Amino acid sequence: MRVVGFTFIRNAISYDYPIVEAIQSIQPLCDEVVVAVGASNDDTLELIRGLEGNLTILETEWDDDLREGGRVLAIETNKALDAVTADADWCIYIQGDEVLHEDGHAEIYNAMELYLEDFRIEGLLVKYRHFYGSYDYVGTSSKWYKNEIRIIRNGIGIRSYRDAQGFRKPNDLKLRVASLDAFMHHYGWVKHPEAMQLKQRSFHQMWHDDEWIDSHIISGREYDYARDVGQLARFEGTHPLPMRPRVRQQNWSFDTDISIDRRTWKDRFKEFCYQRLGLEIGYKNYLAVRD
After folding, report:
1. What pLDDT shows up at residue 191?
2. Structural domain boundaries, residue 13
3. 286 in any annotated domain
4. DSSP string spanning the chain?
5. Does the chain have fewer CB atoms within 10 Å around its N or its C terminus?
6. What is the CATH number of the domain that holds 65?
7. What does the pLDDT read at residue 251?
8. Domain for residue 239, yes or no?
């Protein structure tokens, strides 16, 4: 069984993306990792070149004129996916602000072996923890997705979908997936407030025009996490091993009163359906075959 990881990145240093930790977190499962590195304004390319392990680095140019629905992210994802060799059985995808917890490595590897010849299974679903403000808090409201496809079968025409959150087969068909007890940690909302503020304009340029950005992005030197805090819970678990040095080096403070009930009516309704009726309500970018 051959497994290849793939990812993309640009301006990782400027916007404080944990791309090194992301790549390191999937390397134990991969024979090779393909990294599409977009032309950057910092030393991102040198950062990736300095990594150990079997890496294939693909230098790319982003289409900054494409400002619709985050499509440029899917295009860059597909550039990396297209560089995966045909002899790979499975592909493990990770984004620049995600880090896979090693507690799930065995689960993922065993599932890839189990479903290797079971072609009903086209992808594997991992669970998510979304951190916000600092490494001590996770989002619990309905706006955070609970699961997503991060392992896909190679060679069946799978493509990155919309803003690269998920995947689709030809003819816009959803993938048939098996659910795993493995966790991806999403750190996209945990950065120094200055880096987060810098990221806001660049990030939203992939969705909106300048007029929208000027009217919606609040100017300032630092991002104010408190203005969109949502419902949070204190994180009591462990961070992935590659992330622990970064967590220890956190040099800003963020605290919030998690006793305040910030749930929306939608949050309450979904919780009721799940806890009382066993129904998980919400959009799913996949077809669950078995749990």
Report:
1. 95
2. 3-189
3. no
4. --EEEEEEESSTTTTT--HHHHHHHHGGG-SEEEEEEE--SSSHHHHHHT--SSEEEEEE---TT--STTHHHHHHHHHHHHTS-TT-SEEEE--TTEEE-GGGHHHHHHHHHHTTT-TT--EEEEEEEEEESSTTEEE-STTS-SEEEEEEETTS--EEETTTTEEEBGGGBPPEEEEEEEEEEEEEE-S-HHHHHHHHHHHHTTTS-HHHHHHHS--SSS--GGGG--SEEE--S---GGGHHHHHT--S-----TTS----HHHHHHHHHHHHH----S--SSEEEE-
5. C
6. 3.90.550.10
7. 87
8. no
CA distances from 94 to 118, 165, 170, 255, 258 (A): 24, 10, 22, 29, 30
Q: Which residues, in sequence order, are CB contacts of 189 under 8 Å at separation 6+? A: 130, 131, 132, 133, 139, 196, 225
| Calpha distance 202→197 (Å, rounded) | 10
Residues (pLDDT < 70) of the chain are 258-259, 261, 275, 278-279, 290-291
The domain total for the chain is 1
CA distance 19 to 96: 5
pLDDT of 258? 67
Q: Whole-model pTM?
A: 0.93
pLDDT of res. 40: 97
In a domain, 103, yes or no: yes
Backbone torsions φ then ψ of 148, nearest 5 degrees: -160, 155
Q: Do the domain assignments include residue 290?
A: no
pLDDT score at 209: 84
